[in-house]
Structure formats: structure tokens, C-alpha cells
Amino acid sequence: MKKILLRFFGLILILILAFGWVILNPKPALAQINTINYNNINLENRDFSHADLAGVTFVGAEMRGTNFQGANLTNAILTKGVLLKANLEGANLSGALVDRVTMDGANLKNAIFTEATLTRSRFFDAEITGADFTDALIDRYQVSLMCQRADGVNPATGMSTRDSLGCK
């Protein structure tokens, strides 16, 4: 009987401490801290150059001609977006989700796409010189098209575009 009472009071003490910790130290979930959403909005020709946009979402955004030169877009979400002739030169998109995005004619020179998900996205006539696609998930057809024009070495990572795409 004594062991049962000790366990019961121990459990009550743990619950009181946990409740007190939650009440006295409330913090939002990590994924929601400083999150900005540009969802289903027209951002055509906007200037986000050198901005810190890590973790920001751009779902269904119209971003034709938008300037992301040198921007930090690590772990950003750019699904169903339109980046026709956008400037992403030197931008860091490491770990970004770039699913179903049209990047035709975009400037991706020296951009970093390491460990990014680029599925069902298009890169027709995109400038990819010096871009780093190491460990990125890209449709085979798009990789074969990009390998035809892959050239250069990324100045930040030292990886050649051809090697990062796995071109033969």
C-alpha cells in the first residue's frame, strides 16, 4: 500500500511540475516562429534581394520577374509558384520545397539548391551556371535537359553544376 501511495504522489508531483513548466514558459511551436506567408498573392516584379526569407511560404504565388538575388530561402516553401524570368542569382534554397514551380527563363546562376525538393518543376531556358543541386530531388527529364547546358562551379560550395546534377 505504501508503494502505491508513493507512486501516486510521485505522479502527481510530476504532473504539477509539467503543468507549471508549460504555464510559466509558454513558447509557440518552432515551425510557427516568425513565419511569413505569401500564399496566393501577386508578387510580380517585387524586390526581395538579399532578404532573409528562411522558412517563408510562397504557395501559389505569382512571382514573375521577382528579384531574389542573394536571398536566404533555406527551408522555404515555393509550391505551385510561377517564377518566370525571376532572378535567384546567388540565392540559397537549401532544403526548400520547390514543387510544381515554373522557373522558365529564370536566373539561377550560383544559386544553392542542396537537399531541396524540386519535383514537377520546370527549368526551361533557365540560367544554371554555377548552381549547386547536390542531393536535390529533381525529375529525371529536367535533369537531362539541364545537363545539356550545365556549366560552372558554385563559388560558395565549390561544387560544379554538372557534378551536382549527376551529369555524365
Question: What's the layout of helices and strands?
Answer:
Layout: H1 2-24, E1 117-118, E2 137-138, H2 140-147, H3 161-165
Parallel strand pairs: 1-2
What would you note in describing this structure?
The protein is an all-alpha fold and 168 residues long. It has 3 helices and 2 strands, in the order H-E-E-H-H. It has helices at 2-24, 140-147, 161-165, and strands at 117-118, 137-138. It has a two-stranded parallel sheet. The N and C termini lie far apart (74 Å). Residues 29-33 have low confidence and may be disordered.
Low-confidence stretches: 29-33
Q: Report Rg.
A: 22 Å
* Percentage of residues assigned to helices: 10-25%
* Number of helices, where a helix is a run of at least 4 consecutive DSSP H or I residues: 3
Strand order of the largest sheet: 1-2
Mean pLDDT: 91
Question: Could you tell me how far the N terminus lies from the C terminus, measured between alpha carbons in angstroms?
Answer: 74 Å
Strand residue percentage: under 5%
Characterize the largest beta sheet: strand count, sense, and whether it forms a barrel.
Answer: 2 strands, parallel
Mass-distribution shape: elongated
DSSP strand tally: 2
Give the topology string: H per helix, E per strand.
Answer: HEEHH
SS class: mainly alpha
Features:
3 helices; two-stranded parallel ribbon; 168 residues
Quick synopsis:
With 168 residues, this protein is an all-alpha fold.
